[in-house]
Specification:
By secondary structure, the chain is mostly helical. The chain contains 2 helices and no strands. The longest helix has 52 residues, at 29-80.
């Protein structure tokens, strides 16, 4: 009876999940469990990277707003001169 890998949310972990599923009959129980642990670590790392990317996108958006505000102030100051 072949075991099935735990479903993964990230693309990177899904690749490993497909490999585990395709090769489950050829994997020892220890190797199967080890690969499951690796897939879980990959998924956690990918999720952490997604969070960091989202945080950086927020920062970039905030900086863009600040730049636009500064441009408007510069224009006002140039018009005053």
């Amino acid at each position: 009876m072949s075991r099935q890998a735990i479903g993964r949310k990230t693309d990177a972990a899904s690749v490993l999940e497909r490999f585990i599923d395709d090769e489950s009959d050829n994997l020892s129980p220890n190797l199967f469990d080890g690969l499951e642990e690796v897939a879980e670590e990959i998924e956690e790392l990918a999720e952490n990277l997604d969070e960091q990317i989202n945080d950086l996108e927020v920062i970039v958006s905030e900086r863009d707003e600040e730049i636009e505000e500064l441009k408007a102030k510069i224009e006002e100051l140039e018009e005053e001169q």
